[in-house]
Amino acid sequence: MPPKASSSASKTVTKNSLDQLEIKLQSDVDWLTNQLVPKLKASTAKKAPYTFVNNSVNALGSKLSMQEAEAMQKTLKDMLTKRKKAEQEAEKKRLQEEEKKKKEELPEQEIPDDEFFKQYM
After folding, report:
1. Which residue, among 62, 61, 40, has the nearest Cα to 51 in the 3D structure?
2. Model-level pTM?
């Protein structure tokens, strides 16, 4: 008797893990955040973090209370202020370094300006 041919076809099961996700506790929200943030940071999609946050806020905007919306606005304003300050500090540091390089590149004067112009007065 010849051996039977294996006719077990491979079966693919697709599961949407978000369908099974239940968010009942704050720890569930924290877990979800910890899972999503690294993936958004590492994403190569154009403006992925912005798009995600923007779409989330737009979809959930009607569910937020006035206090929650104000708290979110305050958080965004604080974040923007910190970012602007950091950019200003970086620009200031860059300008100082450029000025320092320029001073190093210029040859030192043999005669100070006031002594040089004394002879012409």
Report:
1. 40
2. 0.57
Q: What is the pLDDT of residue 8?
A: 57
Q: Cα–Cα distance between 64 and 73 in angstroms, integer?
A: 12
| DSSP secondary structure letters along 20-69 | H----SHHHHHHHHHHHHHHHHH--STTHHHHHHHHHHHHHGGGS-HHHH
Average pLDDT of every residue of the chain: 85
Tokens read off for 45: 């999609």
What is the rounded distance in angstroms from the CA atom of residue 62 to the CA atom of residue 39?
27
40, pLDDT greater than 70 = yes
Chain-centre distance for alpha carbon 106: 40
